[in-house]
Write a sequence for this structure.
């Protein structure tokens, strides 16, 4: 790699060395010197609109904007002279021309950049005597409100929507002192409702429909945790008051996602307090479920499980786990199935074939899997299947940002015209379901239609010329097709890394923890292979399986030839947040806590292990960890298996560290969003591997849906785009 050229300059009499091309505003950070700014925002295009960042540069006649000035060899910069202070004061006086001075009742009070700047540099009086221009506040959507007089026209919102989101829903209307930000549909927005514009607004001009005027920032606690929705694992900071989540953002920019959150990460937390949450355990008596005490529910579940186990053996019981529960929950769940009951029937709804990827990479897995940061830094990305804009929004953000910042080349093979096509250097449209055939052609030129072959030849030629390629694929590529893909990748130049795209917050963790019929924790081979999730539902419906134990999943809505029915199953036990199709048919229902109500860890689709931290508290539900522990004690009392004696999820993680390759990391050094602590499990025992067609299935969520949680996301459901797209 070519060595980066460095330049030397002096800032406030201190020597500073920075890479050539660095802006002076960034160079000042090296000596912890603040240059105030409004319109400058790292990662977005330069605007030079606010003039707040003025600095003095020797031999330059006028003050310069540090946000557009590139540091050069020998430059001498001052950031704190009397002239600069006077200039900043003047800029602030000007910005306040029309700005209302009602900070005590402004929604942004306490966390407003303008308020902070005026406090530090501003005037205590104004020379303006003219009446301020007033405009009424506008509601652009259920989520976004705009208050023009507060707007300081920094255009951060316009740029983040255009450059960052590639939505381009915001623009500038009118001129001069009358300039305002305008939405794309006259008086309202039609957009992805991500809230990035609200988040990036330095003042109280853009406010959030869910948060505005509910509380003051200093009245809340801030809990960093991991988003509960898709598999990308964005860090989100939940603002909590009286045990209730009021807001989600990531203003500290920590974590694998910087300040990015999609609509679900930012507004999809209100399911926690939805009135339909299950709050009490229930037991079936006749054809109805009745609320009972925890003791009665646990005793009933344990007694019935024990009875079936004694009569028919462990393999008469099926265990369907979750791609949302924590690693600790999943680890205990497979332990219960395998060790307590001796059942091989354990699986979950698989949305990506992580086993296939680990198998294909075998011992190379540790350094061939792609993290979110590496995805951004890649020189080229080959994206096969999936629609990241909808299904994996952070992945889409990383790709778009890579294209914008350093010319990342994107190549796409897809059966649909996905939005990322706009960034693609080459887009190959294949017929529905033909992504794997295209991969086979790339690998060994297996027969394919001539038109497609020509397209793929062009794509291959461009990829051959690239180096450091990231290969990202959805559920369309599984089993043997992943082996073909890795075979093809191994012939490309430079470092080639892979990412399989799953659907939910712990899709990857469920596989790593061994919630699989053929593999235990860390993809170790299970002693005997059990039934897959669809096979279990089918077997239960037909009476071959006597009992189903379901934790945080809704298999009766997804699988089974007999429709939603439980058929001849004698026993159905469910841990759930809401009365799903499966919970409605259960014999015992345990109310469970969501990811925002528990401690533990989750693993995102790129193998980055992150913390879950309890933010909200809802009376009634217990964590899956607690439920499994309670049940194991009841089972032990009834003479089956050993009770789980883990004090807390951290104790389970200690066992995971010893059992699952790649997870041996101190819990205390893992933070929510700590990408650098990513640890990647490696499959230890490579054998030929394939999966039946259709077993790996994406739920095809949109930006506005999140599996069974979708209809309980009240805010998200309220935006018209959610109705249009679901
Ligand atoms: S909510 Fe997101 S998509 Fe909509 S205008 Fe704001 S930044 Fe753009
Ligand atoms: S609405 Fe906020 S982010 Fe947008 S231009 Fe105005 S002050 Fe800047
Ligand atoms: S991209 Fe996924 S993980 Fe990130 S905020 Fe959106 S739903 Fe959550
Ligand atoms: S921050 Fe430099 S001009 Fe606005």
């Amino acid at each position: 790699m070519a060595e980066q050229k460095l330049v030397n300059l002096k800032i406030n009499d201190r020597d500073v060395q920075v890479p050539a091309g660095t802006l002076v505003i960034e160079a000042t950070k090296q000596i912890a010197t603040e240059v105030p700014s409004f319109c400058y925002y790292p990662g977005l295009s330069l605007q030079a609109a606010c003039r707040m960042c003025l600095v003095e540069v020797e031999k330059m006649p006028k003050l310069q904007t540090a946000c557009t000035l590139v540091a050069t060899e020998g430059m001498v910069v001052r950031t704190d002279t009397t002239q600069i202070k006077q200039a900043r004061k003047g800029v602030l006086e000007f910005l306040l021309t029309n700005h209302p001075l009602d900070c005590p009742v402004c929604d942004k009070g306490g966390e407003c950049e303008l308020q902070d700047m005026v406090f530090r540099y501003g005037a205590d009086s104004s020379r303006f005597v003219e009446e301020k221009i007033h405009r009424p506040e506008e509601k652009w959507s259920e989520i976004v409100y705009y208050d023009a007089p507060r707007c300081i026209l920094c255009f951060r919102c316009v740029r983040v929507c255009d450059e960052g989101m590639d939505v381009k829903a915001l623009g500038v209307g009118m001129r001069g002192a009358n300039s305002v930000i305008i939405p794309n549909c006259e008086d309202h927005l039609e957009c992805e409702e991500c809230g990035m514009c609200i988040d990036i607004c330095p003042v109280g001009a853009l406010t959030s429909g869910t948060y505005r005027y509910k509380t003051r920032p200093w009245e809340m606690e801030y809990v960093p945790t991991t988003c509960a929705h898709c598999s990308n694992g964005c860090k989100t900071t939940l603002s909590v008051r009286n045990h209730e989540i009021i807001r989600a953002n990531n203003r500290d920019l920590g974590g694998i996602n910087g300040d990015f959150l999609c609509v679900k990460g930012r507004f999809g937390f209100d399911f926690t307090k939805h009135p339909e949450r299950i709050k009490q355990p229930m037991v079936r008596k006749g054809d109805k479920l009745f609320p009972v005490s925890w003791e009665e529910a646990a005793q009933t579940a344990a007694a019935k499980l024990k009875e079936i186990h004694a009569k028919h053996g462990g393999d008469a019981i099926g265990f369907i786990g979750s791609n949302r529960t924590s690693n600790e929950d999943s680890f205990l769940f497979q332990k219960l199935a395998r060790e307590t009951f001796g059942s091989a029937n354990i699986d979950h709804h698989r949305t990506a074939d992580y086993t296939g990827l680990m198998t294909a990479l075998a011992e190379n897995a540790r350094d061939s899997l792609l993290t979110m940061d590496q995805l951004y830094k890649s020189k080229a990305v080959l994206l096969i299947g999936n629609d990241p804009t909808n299904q994996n929004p952070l992945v889409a953000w990383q790709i778009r940002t890579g294209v914008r910042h350093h010319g990342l080349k994107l190549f796409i093979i897809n059966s649909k015209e996905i939005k990322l096509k706009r960034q693609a250097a080459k887009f190959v449209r294949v017929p529905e379901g033909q992504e794997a055939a295209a991969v086979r052609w790339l690998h060994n030129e297996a027969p394919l239609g001539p038109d497609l072959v020509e397209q793929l030849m062009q794509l291959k030629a461009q990829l051959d010329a690239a180096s450091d390629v990231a290969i990202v694929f959805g559920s369309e590529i599984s089993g043997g097709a992943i082996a073909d893909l890795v075979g093809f990748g191994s012939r490309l130049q430079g470092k080639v890394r892979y990412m399989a795209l799953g659907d939910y917050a712990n899709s990857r963790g469920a596989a790593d923890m061994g919630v699989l019929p053929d593999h235990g924790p860390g993809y170790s081979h299970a002693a005997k292979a059990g039934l897959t999730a669809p096979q279990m539902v089918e077997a239960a419906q037909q009476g071959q399986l006597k009992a189903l134990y379901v934790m945080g999943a809704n298999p009766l809505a997804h699988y089974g030839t007999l429709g939603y029915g439980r058929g001849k199953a004698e026993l159905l036990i469910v841990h759930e947040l809401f009365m799903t199709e499966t919970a409605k048919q259960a014999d015992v229902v345990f109310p469970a806590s969501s990811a925002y109500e528990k401690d533990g860890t989750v693993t995102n689709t790129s193998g980055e292990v992150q913390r879950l931290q309890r933010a909200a508290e809802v009376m009634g539900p217990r964590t899956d960890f607690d439920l499994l522990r309670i049940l194991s004690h009841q089972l032990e009392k009834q003479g089956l298996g050993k009770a789980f004696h883990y004090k807390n999820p951290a104790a389970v993680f200690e066992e995971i560290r010893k059992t699952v390759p790649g997870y041996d990391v101190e819990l205390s050094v893992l933070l929510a969003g700590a990408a650098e602590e990513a640890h990647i499990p490696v499959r230890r025992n490579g054998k030929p591997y394939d999966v039946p067609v259709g077993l790996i299935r994406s739920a095809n969520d949109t930006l506005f849906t999140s599996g069974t949680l979708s209809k309980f996301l009240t805010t998200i459901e309220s935006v018209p785009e959610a109705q249009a797209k679901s």
